[in-house]
Task: structure prediction
Amino acid sequence: MTSTPPRSRAQRRRDTEHRLGHDVDVWVASASADGTPHLVPLSFHWDGEALLAATPTDSPTGRNLAATRQARLALGHTRDVAMIEGDVEVLAIDALPPHVGDRFAARTGFDPRSLTTPYRWFRITPNRIRAWREENELSGRELMRDGRWLV
Result:
């Protein structure tokens, strides 16, 4: 247990938005149609509304996200985490305007458009976000519900 006082929900939102704007990688959890879980880190770009990630079309994550159109993401460390549940939009690798792909590549240092392995874009729009550090922040950890910020 920590002696650090809990952050306000407003501060947790600011911290979460900062992470979305500055972190480069996120843990992406998905599941196959039969429920087999899969967890991988992916680079992402946040545009203020959704996270944009890319992964090979035929990878377990690519297949799972395309089939279920749902993902659970984790930003941060176990003692300072933002858990994000979101709806997934699947886009062909050439479906985005070039400047969007360029922003992704500049931020992440990775450009899936230049690879020979077939990739897709996955645009993940959060519908639920929870954030906490320690036990004393479990209360009030829900910051977004049904795609709307609560604070």
About this structure: Helices lie at 9-22, 60-68, 98-108. The radius of gyration is 16 Å.
